Amino acid sequence: MEDGKPVWAPHPTDGFQLGMIIDIGADTLTIEPQKGKTFLAPMNQVFPAEDDVNKHVEDNCSLMYLNEATLLNNVKVRYNKDHIYTYVANILIAVNPYFDIPKLYGPNTIKSYQGKSLGMLPPHVYAIADKAFRDMKILKMSQSIIVSGESGAGKTENTKFVLRYLTTTYGTGQDIDERIVEANPLLEAFGNAKTVRNNNSSRFGKFVEIHFNEKNAVVGGFVSHYLLEKSRICMQSNDERNYHIFYRLCAGASEDIKKKLHLDSPDSFRYLNRGCTRYFANKDFDKQIMQNRKSPEHLKVGTMKDLLLDDLGDFNRMCVAMKKIGLDDTEKLDLFRMVAGVLHLGNIDFEETGSTSGGCVLKNQSGQTLEYCADLLGLDHDDLRVSLTTRVMLTTAGGAKGTVIKVPLKVEQANNARDALAKAVYSRLFDHVVKRVNQCFPFETSSNFIGVLDIAGFEYFEHNSFEQFCINYCNEKLQQFFNERILKEEQELYQKEGLGVNEVHYVDNQDCIDLVEAKLVGILDILDEENRLPQTSDQHFALAVHSKHKEHFRLTVPRKSKLAIHRNLRDDEGFIIRHFAGAVCYETTRFVEKNNDALHMSLESLVCESKDKFVRELFENSNTTKDSKQKAGKLSFISVGNKFKTQLNLLLDKLRSTGSSFIRCVKPNLKMVSHQFEGAQILSQLQCSGMVSVLDLMQGGFPSRAPFHELYNMYKDYIPDKLTRLNPRLFCKALFKALGLNDNDFKFGLTRVFFRPGKFAEFDQIMKSDPEHLAELVKKVNKWLVCSLWKKVQWCSLSVIKLTNKMSYRAMACIKIQKAVRMWLCKRKHKPRIDGMVKVRNLKKHMERFNVVVNGLKEGKQEMAKQVQELAASIDALMAKIKVNTAMTWKEIDTEYQGLVKRSEQLLSSMQKKKQEEEEHDRLKHIEEEMEKERKRRDKEEQRRKQEEEDRRLKTEMELKRKQEEEDRKKREAEDKMMQAELEVQLALEREEEVQHAAVLEQERRDRELAMRIAQSEAELIPEEGQMDAGLRSLHPLICFSLLSDTCNRGPQVQATKAAAGVKKYDLSKWKYAELRDVINTSCDIELLAACREEFHRRLKVYHAWKSKNKKRNDDGSDQRAPKSVTDYAEQNPAPVMTAQHQEVAMNRQQRYFRIPFIRPADQYKDPQNKKKGWWYAHFDGPWIARQMELHPDKRPIVLVAGKDDMEMCELSLEETGLTRKRGAEILPRQFEEIWERCDGIQYLKKAIENKQARPTYATAMLQSLLK
C-alpha cells in the first residue's frame, strides 16, 4: 500500500483485475480498480503484479512473482499475441487458438526444434516431443506424453503434432513413418464426432506408442484404445452428430458404392436424423456434394464450417490413408458395408401384434430396410426378423439341456435389441479398425517407446450418463497420477536428496477414486452386482449407491445440484459425485444396460453364423464360445465398467514405469471462436489441472536432474585417466565449473544434480555426447582443474601467511594483556601507599614556606627553625617508612599524615603569632583555600563512586525484574499447557467439523462454478441460491483450500484467541485503517484507545505477513523492520491470550527501552566478519513501540516515531518480540535518551508533532511539556 504498486484482485469474469490497495481491513483489503468502484477482496486472493503487466515470458517460472494471477496474465498476454504455448517449468500449457497460425507447424519449424532443449526456442509442442525423445535416448527409459484438457481444448490436434514430429524427425524415412501419421484420419473418422463443445471430439481414448530400436530409430507403433462411446451410435442431442464416418460416407461415396449400399441423405436414417444432419464443408466442397445427399436442414441453414473438418475432403483423405496403411478395395468396401448395415439396422421399426400372446412384429415399411440390412451383414432375412422380435431361452433340468423356448419381445425390448446389435457391430468394427491400424506398422523388437495419451477430458453436460461417468473416473485417476508424479514424488525426492524445498499442499482425490472402484462397495461393483440380478433395475442400482454411501462427502443426491434441471430428479434416478474439477450429476437411466457388453443368445448366434466372412471375423473373438446355457440365462453379462477399470489400471502401471511429460490443453472460451479470452473459465482449468500447485512447488523447485554416475559413465570413456580417478560427484562439479554455470541455477543432492526452472539449455548442453563436444568439455575440465589446484595452492599459501600473522598478533596481544594485568595488580597493591606518598610530598612542599616564614622572624628564629627541622625530619621519616614498609595500610598512613598535618598546623599557628597579623592572616587563608580544594576533590570522587553504585543497583534491579518476568512467563506457559490440553479435548470435534465444513465450502464453490459454465453453454437459468451459496459467490477458487489448511494447522491457542476476541467490547472489524489511526491519535476513551491500538497493530501484522508471502523472488530483505532474531521469535512463539490482569498492566503504559545487535540480510553475506553490524534501539510505550532507531556503520542513523512511520516500524507487541526475555537487552532510559538526542531524534519528533503526524505517546507528552 505504501509502495503504490498495482496488485491483482479477483474478478468474476476475467479471473483477476488490476487495482491498488487503499485500505487494510480485518481480513480483507480494499481495492481500487483501474476501472470501476472500489471493492473488498480477501487478503489471500490478492497477489502482487509484475512491474510491467504487458510483458510476457516463455516460462512462467521466470516471472518475478509466482502466483496464479501472474500465470493467468502471462498466458493471456501471450494468447493475444498468438503465442499459444507457454511453459510452467517443463510442463507445456497449450491454448486452443481456433484458427490456423501461419508457419507454426511447418517443416522448417520441425527442423528447428530437432535436438534443441526446452528454453532454447519458444515454447512448442515439438519441444516437448523432442525432450521425450532425448530423455529416452539418454536415460534408456521409455517415455510417456500425457495430453489432457477439457473437450475442445485441442488434445487430439496436439497429439497429431507430437506423432508427426517424432516420425518426421527420427523416422527411418520408410513407409512405416507415413503409416503412423496416416492412421490418425482413419481413427478419427470412426472414433470422433461433433459435440456441443467440440466439433472434432474424440469419443474414445487412445494411447499411441511409437517404438524405437537400439539405434533410436522408429521401427513401428501400437495403438491401445479405451471406452468407445457406443450410446452415440443410436442417439445424439440436437446439436450433436454421430461418428464422422456416417456423414462422410453419405457425402463422399461414389455412385456405385452408394447404390450398392443403398445410401441416402443423413436425414433418412434414424441413427442420424435425431441430431444435427448438416455436413462440414467449405464452399468448394459443398458444391461438389450432390443435392440429393443433403438433408433439408443442410439445404435450409447451410454447411457447418471448421478449419480442420470437411466431410467430403476428409472422406477422400481417409480413402488415401486406407490405401497407404495397406487396406485394399475389398477390405475398404467391407468397412463401408458394416457402416451402412448399422444405418439400415436403425431404420427397422416394430409394432404390437395385437394378439393375446403379446410380442411385436416388423412394420410393413421396414421390410425393405430389413432386407438391405440382412444383405449387408450377410444374414438370412427371416432369421434376422425372428432374432429381433424374439429371444431364445433354454431350460435346464438336473444339469441336462432342456426345452428351447422362444420368448416374444415387446416393442421397447425389440428396439433395445436392435440398438444393442447396432452397437455391437459398430464397436467390433472399431476394434477391427484399430487392429488393422496396428498391423500396418508391425515391429519385431523394440528397445523403448514413446507413448502419447489422448483421452477424453473431464466432461459435464446437462444430461450425463454412463459414458461421462467412466470418462470422469479416468480423469480422476490421471489427475492423481499427475499429483503423484509432479507434486508428491517430486517433493519426496527433494526431501530424500536434502534440498530443503518447502512442502506444497494439494487436494488428494483418493477418496473419490475409492468411491468408484473400491471392492464390493464401489459404484462399479454395485453396478456389476445389479447386472447379475434376475430382475435388473436402474432405480434399484441408484438407491443401492445412496444407501451404501450415505455419509460419503463425495456423493450426494440430485436435489442438491446447482442446476434446476437436476433438482427435478428423484433419488432413485441419479446421483452427484464431487470430482476434483466440480460436481457432476449422473442420470442412472440405462446405466445397467450400458454396463453389459453382451448380446442375448439369439442375436449372438445369428451374427456368429453369418454368411459373410468379414462379419464372422468381427465376432469370432467375442465371448460367444462360452457355454450356451450360461449365455442363455439372464445372469450372463460382460461388465464394461470393470473391463475399463482393468484397462485403466494397466495404462497407469505403464505410465508409472515410464518417464512423463505433460501437455495441459486449455480451452479459451465456450463459443469456440478465436481471439476471445475468458479469464475466469481459463483460471478454473489451470487450477483443476494442478498448475497453481506446480507454481508453488517450482518457486523453490528443480524440475530437471541427472544422477552423478550417469553423467560420469557418459564421459568416462572419452576422458584421460587422470580425470577418471575423480569420483562422480567431484567430476560433475568440475564439469559445471568448466561450463561456467551459475551456482544459483543448480544444486547438488546426495546422488544427483538438480537444475532450476528455465535452465534446460545448460542441462541439455551437458547431456550431449558427440565426440567434438566431449573433447571441448574435457579441455575445459582440465583447464578448470589446473586453475582450481592453483587457486588451492594460493589459498593454502595465503592461509599459512595469515596463520603466521595471526600467531604473531596473538603473541603480542598476550604480552599486552599480561602487561596490563601486572600493571593493574601493582596499582591495586601499592595505590594506598602511592596516594599517601603524594599527600606527604605535598606536605613537604609546604615546608619551604615554613623556612621563608622562619627566615622572616626576628625573634625565636632558632627555636622555630629547630621545630621546622624536626617536622621536616618527621615527614622524611614517614616517606621513608612508606617506601620501606609495604604492609602499611591506608588507615595507618592517613593517621600519621594527619598527625603531621596537626603538628604543621600547630607550628604554623605559633609562627602566626609571631608574625604580623596581616601576614599571618594571608598565609592562613592561602592554606585554607588549598585544603578546601582538596576536600572538594574528595567529595567529587565520592559522588562519582555513589553514581556508579546507583547504576549498578538499577541494572541489578532490571535483571531481577527480567528473571521475575521469565518465571512468571514460565508459570503462565505451564498454565497455558494445562488449558491447552483441556481445550484440545473440547475442540477436537469442533476442528474436525471445521475441516469438513471447509472441504464442503471448497467443493460447493467448484460445483457452483461448474454449474455456471454448464449454464453458459446450455443457456439455462440458475435460480437464486441460499445463504451459503451467496457467500460462496465471493469466494475465490482456492480460498476454501486455504481455509482447510488454516483450520488444520491452527491450534487451541489460536482458538482461544478467537474466543477471547469474540467477547470484546468493541467490534472494529469494519473500521477502516485510517479511522483506527485517527481514533488512536484523538480519543480519550482508554478502553476504546486500547482496542484500537490492538486492532491497528493486528492489521499491520496481517498486511506485513501478506507482503512477506508475496515478496519478490530476488528480495534482499532491505525493508526489514526489526532484527531477524525478533521476528523469528515471534513466529516460533506466538503471544498467548492476554488475561484481564495483563490487560490492566498494559493499560499502565510502562516505559521500557531495549538495545540489540542488528545486521540487515543484504549485508549478512557481504560482511562475514560483522564489520557492518549495527544496533537496533526500541522504546515501548506499554505493549506497543513508540520510538525506534537503527545505527549502522557508514550509514546515517534511522530514526522512526509511531504514527508517522508505522509501516517501517516493528509491528509486534512487546510480548511477541521476546525482548523482555533477552538477557542484557533492556537498557536504562538515560542511555536511550542520550543516543536519541545524539541522532537528532528530538528535532525529528518535534517536526512530526508540529505536522500532526506523531501518535500521542509518553515521548510526545514529555517533549511537549519540555517545550512549554
- Poorly predicted spans: 623-635, 1019-1063, 1139-1147
Number of helices: 48
Percent strand: 5-15%
Instruction: Estimate the global geometry from the Cα principal axes.
Output: elongated
**Computed structural class:** alpha+beta
Range of helix content: 40-55%
Radius of gyration (CA) equals 46 Å
What is the gist of this entry?
The protein has 1268 residues and is an alpha+beta fold. 55% of the residues lie in helices and 12% in strands. It starts with 6 loop residues before the first strand and ends with a helix.
What are the salient characteristics of this protein?
single chain, 1268 residues, seven-stranded mixed beta sheet, five-stranded antiparallel beta sheet, 28 strands, 12% strand, elongated
Write the layout of secondary structure elements.
Elements: E1 7-11, E2 15-24, E3 28-33, E4 39-42, E5 47-48, H1 68-80, E6 85-88, E7 91-95, H2 107-112, H3 125-139, E8 143-148, H4 155-170, H5 175-191, E9 192-193, E10 201-202, E11 205-212, E12 218-226, H6 231-234, H7 244-252, H8 255-261, H9 270-273, H10 283-288, H11 296-301, H12 311-324, H13 329-346, E13 350-352, E14 360-362, H14 367-377, H15 381-389, E15 390-397, E16 400-408, H16 411-440, E17 448-454, H17 466-497, H18 510-517, H19 523-532, H20 538-548, E18 555-556, H21 564-567, E19 574-579, E20 582-587, H22 591-594, H23 601-608, H24 613-619, H25 628-632, H26 640-656, E21 659-666, H27 679-688, H28 691-698, E22 704-707, H29 708-716, H30 721-724, H31 728-739, E23 746-748, E24 752-755, H32 760-767, H33 771-855, H34 861-884, H35 890-914, H36 917-1018, H37 1027-1033, H38 1039-1049, H39 1052-1062, H40 1073-1082, H41 1086-1109, H42 1124-1132, H43 1140-1147, E25 1151-1158, H44 1161-1164, E26 1174-1181, E27 1184-1191, E28 1198-1201, H45 1214-1217, H46 1229-1238, H47 1241-1250, H48 1258-1267
Helix pairs in contact: 3-4, 4-5, 5-12, 5-16, 7-12, 13-14, 13-16, 17-18, 17-26, 19-20, 29-31, 31-33, 33-34, 33-35, 34-35, 35-36, 36-38, 36-39, 40-41
